[in-house]
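User: I want to check something. If I give you two sequences, will you return the structure for each one separately, not as a complex?

Assistant: Yes, each is folded on its own. Here is the first sequence with its structure:
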Amino acid sequence: MAPSLDKKLKQAIRAKRKRHFNAEQEQTRKKSIDLDYRVWEKLSQKAHELDATLSDTIEYLLSEANRSESANKQVDTLKQDLSNLLDM
């Protein structure tokens, strides 16, 4: 067998073993989702801006949304408290 083909065969075997090993563990198992083209395009652009993968970008955007929601709740609570103080 040609050395280049032998190398490709060994790489394919290693890749297959890695995929099998990763599929056994919950945190490394691959998940897939269907995205509309427009959504993928926006995520892709954001990923390029952040110099990150699509998965990292989705995780970042979700954490930012959670932080924003938490901050909005705090502001609403403060507004309600101020309103209650002013009504006294």
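And separately, the second sequence with its own structure:
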Amino acid sequence: MNFHDETKRMFMKVIAGEVEPAEWEKWWDSHRKKLEDVLNRGDFERIMPDSWSVSYHWMVKTQSAVAYHFYTQGRPMKISDYYEKKAQEEERRMRQAAMDSFYERVAPTRQQWENYLEGHPTQPVAFDWKKLLGTPPGQKPAQEFSYKGARDAEQRKQCINELHLRLKENVQAKIAPLAKAYGMKKTGPKTFVREKNGLVARVNFVGYFRGGGYESMDCYLCPVYALPAGILDLPGPVCQGENFHKMDKDWVSIIESASDAVDADRVQAVNQKFDDILTYLAEDIFPEWQKIDNIETYFAKERQEYLKATEVGPKEPWMPWRSMWDLSTGDQKHPWRADAYLFGVWDLLSGREEEGYARLDECIGHNADYMKSLLKQYPKAYNDPRDSLSVIYFNAQLFAKTKQITDAGKRRKAIRETYEEVCRFMRYFHGLAKRVERS
């Protein structure tokens, strides 16, 4: 057998998934000089790039490059999925090993947080949420469409109406019972809210806008007086973990975009996607929220340290330059100084007035020029929940004004009264109460 035939035979084995990575590397290295003569430079570098290492991940790329080599010769090949499946198994093992190492690294701060929770126990929620998975009870049969992709305004309207129906069916059948079990009330067709011990928890499906369906799911836990600014939110493994990525996968094509007919296959896909959403909320978000029973626990030093430790996740397999998640902002402060407002008010409520007023002054001073011009144009913007910046600026001003009261007792009373006044409006902001106006 001449070398040309041997190369062809080996390439065919790669196409069929019959060569293990180590065997392939050994064969390639032992014939490298001859291969440089047989293959053109492009094929040579595609089949075995400089970064190649012994793994199924790289065998997938080699197999694809070999298939392309045959394709350019007018011989398209059907490749085996052996390497692809083995690469997926390989990646799962590597991801699990990376996560194990991550949990080992954050174990000290996690243990401190768990010790704190042992001293501040909360009542767990017993609810069989898995019974909600699958096809919603009483779901209407899927329509039959004479088209796959909407071609005109009327067809797009049909798609949107049908998608909205399927979204509402799933929210009502899956999300509503889970939210109710955790004490949340339904304040709209796609919004659930709860207030408890100075904290507000909210889940809201955002839409319908550009895509026609739900563009995203907005969920947050924060003090009633605060804004959902992503500060002191959730640990990285919870908000960016496996369940999140499973839920997020194909979100746009399944429950956002209404450009395709919502036929039987699409209805089944919507049902499955809401199973993913339900799982994410039931296994990750709601149990984590349930640990935080009051505003004191929300600001606990142990919780802050644990959140800080989990901001950056382990490295992605085969992409060491990229973390699985990165919630850190470094030394960069919130663009609205929402962090200064959040901690400033808590400092005042906790009796740390000097620190609290300093933080509130930072929030007010950072936005002062912009807010002056904005309020000239929209004098009542601070009463509009859609204008979060105006709301936070006005709230910070209300708290900061109490600094002018010289009598310590009267000042403490004014802080509490301001807190109650702000919370009264913020209940409207969060969807807990009807419209509130303030002057």
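Because they were folded independently, the notes below concern the second chain alone. The longest strand covers residues 199-206. The chain has 17 helices and six strands.
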